[in-house]
Design brief:
The protein has 124 residues and is α+β, with helices and mostly antiparallel strands. The protein has two helices and seven strands. Residues 24-120 form the Phytocyanin domain.
């Protein structure tokens, strides 16, 4: 097979929407975005390592903080955490449990928090 034919095949496959080896993409909160009372959004979803969570929100009002279980349970920041503040954050899930909340203005106490379990075989 010549190079022009191989390039053409690749272009056709990409136009047809064939996915690459990356994970599924989830917009947290669906159309409503990252907001209060979102704690149950993960129910019924099967996440795998490599899946991507997109957090959409107003960065003047909220943020996303990746925390450990103790911090998640108590809505406090422990020693190990990562803050996202762009308003359009893309987070790739590692294997295992991940915990997120907004640390602004009591958001966590208003259930602006999710717990995500990513087990099984990754997409990659």
């Amino acid at each position: 097979m010549g190079r022009p034919v191989a390039v053409t095949i690749c272009l056709v496959l990409s136009c047809l929407g064939f996915k690459n080896a990356s994970g599924a993409v989830y917009t947290v909160g669906d159309q409503g975005g990252w907001t209060t009372n979102i704690e149950g959004w993960t129910q019924g979803k099967k996440f795998l390592p490599g899946d991507v969570l997109i957090f959409n929100y107003n960065p003047a009002l909220h943020n996303v903080v990746s925390v450990d279980l103790d911090s998640y349970d108590t809505c406090t920041l422990g020693e190990n955490y990562k803050i996202y503040e762009s308003g359009n954050d893309h987070v790739v899930l590692p294997r295992g449990n991940s915990f997120f909340f907004s640390s602004k203005d009591g958001d966590c106490d208003k259930k602006m928090k999710i717990e995500v379990h990513a087990w099984g075989t990754s997409h990659t």
